[in-house]
Amino acid sequence: MVECDSEDLWKRYIAAHPDARGFRGKQIEMYDELKIVCGNYQAPSRWAKMKDGSHPTGYKNFEEDSASFMSPSSEEVSDTDGTESYTGTPEYLQDNNQDPPLVEPVRQLPKRPRDSDALQEAMFAVASSIRRLADAMERSKTTVNSSELLQAVMEIDGLEEAKQMYAFEYLNADPIKARAFMTYNVRMRKTYLFRQFWWWK
C-alpha cells in the first residue's frame, strides 16, 4: 500500500507530481510477487522513506534545505567583491520541483528462492494424466469390445455361421453401427441385421 505519514510532505509531493494524487492508500496488487521479481528497495529521492521511517541519508527535507540556505552560517563575505556567497553543497541548489538524480542502490535485497519448479512439475503431471484420461475416453467412443460384439451376434437365432461371421466383420469395421447394435435387445438386433442385409430374407 502507498503510504505517507506526513500530510505536508504528501501535499508537496502532489504539487510536484499531480498524476500521483490517487495513489495514496491504494493497495498494490500482487505486491509479494512483484517484490520477488523487482525487489522492494525504494527510490533514493527526497520523497522516499526508509523502512525505519527516516529519510535517506544525503537528501534533506525542503524545510531543511531552506533553513540551511538562509542560515547565517552558510553565508560568508567574499574576499574578492564583498558580496555574499553560498558555500553549501551544489545538490541543494536544485529547483524544488526537481528530484535529485537517481542513484543506483548499493545492494539489492536478495530474491526469495523460488519453489515453483516443483509446482510446475506437479501441474505438468496432473495435466498429462488428464490428457491420457481424455484420450482414453475418446478412444472408448470409437471402439467396441470385439468379444462382446461376436457373442451378441452369435446369440441371434436363425443365422448360419457364415452370416454370423459376415455380420460380425461388418459391425466390427464400423464402431458407430456396432454401438447401435449393442444397444438393442436380442429381438431388435435381429431386425437390425436383416435391415442391413436385406438380401438375407
Automatic annotation (TrEMBL):
* Biased amino acid composition, Polar residues: 83-99
Which residue intervals make up region (Disordered)?
A: 47-101
Name this protein carries in UniProt: Myb/SANT-like domain-containing protein
Q: Which organism is it from?
A: Corchorus capsularis (Jute)
